[in-house]
Amino acid sequence: MPLPSSLAFHLLAVAALAAAAGAAQAQFAVLPAPVPTTPRPSDAEIEKEYRIDGARHLYATYPSRIFKGILPPLLYSVMVVETEIDAEGQVKAVHVVRKPAAPEVQPWVIAMIQRAAPFPAPVKQPGGTVRYLDIWLVHRSGQFQIDTLTEGQR
User: Fold this and answer.
1) Which residues contact residue 143 at a Cβ distance below 8 angstroms, ignoring those fewer than 6 apart?
2) CA–CA dist 79, 4 (Å, integer)
3) How open is the CA angle 142-148-150, to the nearest 5 degrees?
4) For residue 136, is it within any domain?
5) DSSP type of residue 57
């Protein structure tokens, strides 16, 4: 007995979505190679200022992964991360404040942050360390923007 056309359409739509999700997930199975950088010490005196230095450093470290232009209205995933940087610019800790909807994005973002070390040394921060919060806006292509430097969203 043939399937009703509406059910057949629904099954095709589900299969197409599953295939698209699989293709998107593959983007996060491999970590991009970081571009070696030698960051200058940060002159930031408060966390909000250091956030800009941290985002710029990540953009310089992963230039091919930066989404150019205005982001589309629907993103693959959004993740809020708190990163702790020590006096030498090394990553002491990465804490996930808001998990991404796509679970494969979380280890990808954490590993990219860790591999981007050293960050600009927070020389003017109390105790020589800094904890800063930022939002990763992740496109299904494996490109991203960081909220601090985002070009906006449609």
Assistant:
1) 65, 66, 67
2) 41
3) 50
4) yes
5) H
The confidence band for 108, taking pLDDT boundaries of 50, 70 and 90, is: very high
> What pLDDT score was predicted for residue 149?
97
Q: How many other CB atoms are found less than 10 A from the CB of residue 146?
A: 19
Cross-strand pairs, 68: none
Q: Respond yes or no on whether the N-terminal peptide bond of residue 36 is cis (omega within 30° of 0).
A: no
The total domain count for the chain is 1
Residue with tokens 């990465």: 94
Domain-embedded: residue 154:
no
CB 136 within 8 A of CB 78: yes
Q: Whose structure tokens read 């310089």?
A: 60
C-beta atoms surrounding 138 within 10 Å: 27
- Which residues are 82's β-sheet partners? 95, 133
Q: What is the pLDDT of residues 25-65, one digit of tens each?
A: 778 988 889 999 999 999 999 999 999 999 999 999 999 99
Give the residue numbers spanning the domain of 90. Answer: 5-149
Check the CA dihedral 69-72-73-78 and report its sign: negative
Residue 108 counted as domain residue: yes
Position 24 in a domain:
yes
Q: What does the block give as tokens for 20?
A: 């698209």
Taking each helix axis as running N to C, give the angle between helix 105-115 and helix 47-61, from 0 to 180 degrees, rounded to the nearest 10: 90
